[in-house]
Design goal:
α5 runs antiparallel to α7, α7 runs antiparallel to α8 and α11 packs across α12. It contains 15 helices and five strands. By secondary structure, the protein is mostly helical. The strands form two sheets. Strands 3-4-5 form a three-stranded antiparallel beta sheet, with no helix packed on it. A two-stranded antiparallel sheet has the order 1-2.
Amino acid sequence: MTRTARSGGAGKTAKTRPVRPSARKYVGWRVLLNPLWCYWGFMASVIVVTVFGLLMVFSSSTVDVISSRKSPWAELRDQAIFCAIGVAFALFTMHVPERLYRRLAIYIVGGAWVLQGLTMTGLGQGAYGNNGWISVGGVSFQPAEFLKLALCVWLPAGMLAAQRKMRTEVWWKAYSGVFLVTFVSFALVMLGKDLGTGMIVALICAFAFLVGGFPLKLLGIFSVVGGAAVLGLFVFGSGNRMSRIMATYGTCSADDAQSVCFQSIHGNFAMGSGGLFGVGLGNSREKWNYLPAAHNDFIFAIIGEELGFVGAALLILGFVVMGWCMVGVALQCKDPYARMVIVCVGAWIVGQALINIAVVLGLLPVMGLPMPFVSAGGSALVMCLGASGVVVQMMRQQGDIRAALVRE
C-alpha cells in the first residue's frame, strides 16, 4: 500500500515509504502476536530464565558442596561451564539452515538411538533407580536429552513425508515410519527405567501428531491407549513408583517426613515457608540436607522458599512468555516443517517445566524430571539451549521475521 501526495501545481506524485504489514496488523492486544516481538521475546526469556537458573543453582547448592569439602562455588562453576557449552551449541544450531535439518533428521535420530543404546552397555551408569547415563572419562552424559531434540527435528519431517504418502497409501502404511520411530524411541528410554523422560518423549510425539495432520479420531484413540499403558507402567512397573504414588495421593502427613514421603514433605515445607516474598536469597533452611535434590529436580521448592510466591510466579511467567512466543510464531509460520519443530520444542520445554512444578507442589508423583534451564545438570541445560537455537532458526522462516532480519 502506497500513500501519495500532490506537489503544488506541477501535478507530480510523491511516494512515501510503504507501511509495513506488521504496523497495520498488530495493534492493541494483537501486538502480543507480533512475530518480531515473539522472536525477540523468546530469546530474551531464554536468557533471563537461564541466568536466573545459574543464580538459584548457586544458592541451593552451597550447603551440599561445602559439606562435601568442596568450594562453595563448585556447582556454580560446573553449571556455568555447561552453560557456556550450551550457548556455543545454540549459536551453532541457530545458524544451521532449515533445509539441512530436514536432510539430516534421520541421521540425527539414528545417532540419538545409538547413544541411548550405550546406556545398556558397560558405559552405562545408573542413578536414582534409572539407567539413563553414559560415562566416558569421568564425564557423565544423559543421551535421552539429545533424543528429545532429535525427535523434535525428525518427527516434523516424518509427518510431512507421511502426508505425501497418504495420497496413494492407506493411513497405517503412510505413517508406519513415524510409528516405528516413536515406538523405538520410547522403548529405548523405558529400557533405562526412566519413566519421567519417557513421558516427555510421548508428549513430544503427541504434539507432532496433533499439528502434523494425523486424523484426530485416531489420535484420540491412540492417546487413550498410550496414556493407559504409561499409567500402567508407572503404577505396576516397580514398587518404588507405587510408593511414590501413595506418597503423593493421600497417605503422607508431616509425621511421615522420614519415610518414603521424605522428599515430597520437605518440598512442601520449603514452598509453605516462603510466604509472599520468601525468606531471602541464600537463606533456605530445607537446603541444609533436608530436601534431596535441592539444586536439581526440587529447585523450584527452594525458589519458593527463598523468593516466595513472587519469585516462583516470575519464573512461571518466564516459561509462559517462552511458550506464548513459540505458539505466536508457529501460528503465523507458513513453513509446515518449521511450524511443527517449534511446537515440538515448546511441548518439550514448557511441558517439562509444568510437570516439574506439579511434582514439587505435590500434584504429581516424584519422577525425576529437572526444571528446564534452571535445575543443575549439564546434559539438560546444553540440550535445552541447543533446542532454543533450533527454534530461533525455525522462527526465521516466518515472513515478517525474515523480512525484518534482511532489512537489518
